[in-house]
Design a protein that fits this description.
Distance between the termini: 39 Å
Strand content: 5-15%
Shape: elongated
Number of helices: 9
């Protein structure tokens, strides 16, 4: 980079011009802000090849700025433009971009201390890598497949996210009951009449505590689907787990609605049956429908893979 600056850029500057800040832009829309002294460091490169081979798209072809002493967001791929400034320009990353970003000093963020972010950023590495690979798969696909995948992302990801939030909340409520909570009742008997239809008492707390565990697993699976492209198929066991959840919630909705309707028609005074018709069974039906819609997208994944 220093050679490019001295041989090409510096001779073009007006006499007496002394830019202090440089914005490096890439064709993918990413950019980074540098102090000139950091940009002209002895190890900063404009790379054209990797291991003797021309750069591919994954590694930033045709040109990539590489600054080994700084965090990765400074190494801009698909180098397009250098913009010179006398005052510090606004970063597209906001406060998440440290001006210097020197690894040796753990300058990860403009304001937040490094020790807070260290473990968080480390945990995000595999997620970032997976998302990057999916983006490349999608970009390499024919236009028709990109449109098909984009349509799936548009509807299936929100459906999975909504279902995950609902399931997580149901798991939280069951955990609350297992710990002795009494809402929406006032005591154990009134709670039982509203939640299970029993006129005496709720099930044993240990039995209730078993419910949040599988529900938390289902919520995690749905969140995984919410961040997944249709071009990337999840493991078979994950699909099987969600299919089982669809079957169980659909059966619960059908059996609950049928039993509660009969009970209401017979004139029962137990509040559970009306709540079941108004809330519990419809909620199960909604979850079954949302999850089935998410899992059904796997057919689209297989079609995409076959076309590719």
């Amino acid at each position: 980079m220093r050679d490019v600056w001295n041989d090409i850029i510096s001779p073009l500057l007006a006499e007496g011009a002394a830019p202090t800040f440089i914005t490096v832009d890439g064709l993918d829309g990413h950019s980074a802000v540098f102090l000139l002294e950091d940009l002209l460091g002895p190890d900063v490169l404009i790379a054209t090849s990797l291991n003797g081979q021309p750069l591919d798209r994954r590694h930033g072809a045709p040109l990539r700025l590489v600054s080994p002493g700084q965090y990765g967001y400074k190494s801009v791929k698909h180098l397009e433009r250098l913009a010179l400034h006398n005052q510090e320009p606004r970063s597209i990353l906001g406060s998440k971009e440290h001006l210097r970003a020197r690894v040796a000093f753990e300058e990860r963020h403009k304001w937040i201390p490094a020790w807070i972010l260290r473990r968080v950023y480390r945990a995000l590495i595999p997620i970032t890598a997976v998302l990057a690979e999916r983006s490349l798969l999608l970009a390499d696909s024919p236009p028709a497949i990109r449109r098909d995948a984009a349509q799936g992302i548009r509807f299936q990801r929100p459906a999975a996210a909504v279902a995950a939030v609902l399931v997580a909340n149901i798991a939280s409520v069951h955990a609350y009951w297992a710990l002795g909570g009494r809402w929406p009742g006032t005591d154990e008997m009134s709670l039982a009449r509203r939640v299970v239809g029993d006129t005496t008492a709720m099930p044993h707390p240990a039995a209730i505590a078993l419910v949040p565990v599988p529900l938390a697993g289902v919520a995690a699976l749905l969140l995984d689907f919410a961040g997944r492209s249709r071009l990337s198929r999840p493991a078979p066991r994950k699909r099987a787990g969600l299919r089982l959840f669809v079957i169980l919630t659909a059966l619960r909705a059908l059996a609950g609605a049928t039993g509660s309707t009969i009970a209401v028609l017979r004139g029962t005074k137990v509040p559970y049956f009306r709540l079941d018709l108004l809330i519990f069974s419809p909620l199960c039906a909604l979850l079954a429908g949302l999850t089935a819609f998410v899992v059904a997208g796997e057919g689209g994944t297989r079609r995409v893979e076959k076309k590719r």
